[in-house]
Amino acid sequence: MSKDKYEIASRPDNDDYLRFIPLGGLDEVGMNCALMECNGSMLMVDCGYTFPESESYGVDYILPDWSYVMDNLDRLDGVLLTHGHQDHIGALPYFLQEVDVPLYSGEFTLKMVESQLKEHHLHDKVDMFPISTDEMLEIGPFQIEFVHVNHSVPNARSISLNTPVGRYIFTGDWKIDQMPLYEPVLDMQTFADFGRDGVRAVFGDSTNAESEGFSNSEYEVFEGISNVADDTEGRLIVAQFSSNLHRLDNLMELAHRHDRKVLLMGRSIRDNVELAIEEGYLNLPDENITIKPHQLDDFPANRVMIICTGSQAEPRAAMTRMAYGDHHTVTLNEEDTVVLSARVIPGNERGIQQMLDELTRRGATVVTAKQAPIHGSGHAKPDELKILLNLTQPDSLVPVHGHYRMRKKHAELAEDVGVPRQHVIENGDVLQFTSDDTRVVGSVNPGRVLVDGANVGDLESVALRDRAKLADAGIIVAFVVMDKSAGELAAKPELIQRGLMGKESDTDIDEMLSRAADAAEQGILQLSDNARRDFNEVDDAIQRSVRKFFRRRIDRKPVVIPVIHEL
Ligand SMILES: [Zn+2]
Ligand SMILES: [Zn+2]
Questions:
Q1: How remote is the CA of residue 14 from the centroid of ligand 2, in Å?
Q2: What domains does the chain contain, in order, with CATH numbers?
Q3: Residue 173 CA, ligand 2 centroid: distance in Å
Q4: Cβ distance 255 to 294 under 8 Å?
Q5: Residue 1: what pLDDT?
């Protein structure tokens, strides 16, 4: 395939360069994936997916479009991962089905990747190299260091890439927790060292740039939920993300101190707890603290804490089922207190609101982060963003991770603290750094790749496009018999419909279909003699004319499927 399709200025001949190419994660929260290319060597940083908006007709995930990587595969030398959240590692199984490339990250993150690759039977085929925070990894012209940061999953790292054109810091998702419970504080010393030596650019997480102040420490969250527990006579039910192992650790300790047994609900929570215990990231305060569902009735309500999935009102998750009275073990009552210890992911607001209403209808007391400090964000807020910029003192800030508004805000914050340059770029932009210049030199024009069960295709794939139209416009199948050698219709087209008309009487529908068939016939007759011998042309003509007919008559654009028989 021609590389011209990307419209990128050619690489500098006699100068070192670094190119930063985000393939996703901008204009969305999720699907983080970026490329760093230096003097011909390319690394991928993170490889996440995102979930579709509600109107996606059966699409499960959206993956980054890595066609540029595929077209430059000989340059790709590795994939670096910041941490184990799905929006950073979720697309790996799909990528690694096509590409053989080593992975580098913290040990626990790679364990999370491995358990995911197992589901796709890929774990034996992939080379993974755990890198500690005091190692220096060299790949081509890159000297790579992983730096400890705080986040809502253990083992989160920023990545520093030292190159012939300076040092670049990719923050990944991060926050500063000055009173973390289960890990060290973000490694300010190392960031300050980088700053003193000179940093060319920071590619920084913008998720919370529009917020204010400083994010809650995990310690404050502990206190916040403790206070709720103090006031609760009945069962304490906490919904949270299954990957937030610090929070899980926190909740176990809290249960222990309040003399409550813990019931874990949701497969992902149980799996992650098991993995975290194995890897030493979670220490149960008491071996017998967890109980099984059938033991629930053996303990009085004030001795029970349930930790469950469903903080985003996911339809099949435990909390959602309890809310809608459809859980096999737990039926809510007036004594129960439900704590939603998680952020609301944009797009889920409505589902969560409805779930909270249902929980309240069942008599449960509902506590969200609006009423009490029961959740701490995993992403840096403006005060933290400023601290990191002041520590690293980069020449440029390139805001990543977040919608345009958030990235713009992040750029303004950088300007406020004196960062000389800010580059608010778009997905696909090729931002090139040379010794004396920084600018966008083109775009790889990425699309989005949709995963629908076992099928992977792009947004324009016919199946999905048709599914979308079918849902709102119905379908017309047009049977046409052509005498190919003569290039003539052998009979009048016959049309059948589904989902397009329903309220009308049968005679009206027949009448309408007959007129549409006339339109199809006219469409075919308007083609030249030669075009009529080409069934692709005939196919197009039928689709165009029938769709136009229904648009004019009933303002609908049905999916038209011509079935052409040759005589
Ligand atoms: Zn994250
Ligand atoms: Zn993220």
A1: 37
A2: 15-213+377-455 (3.60.15.10), 218-367 (3.40.50.10710), 474-566 (3.10.20.580)
A3: 5
A4: no
A5: 41
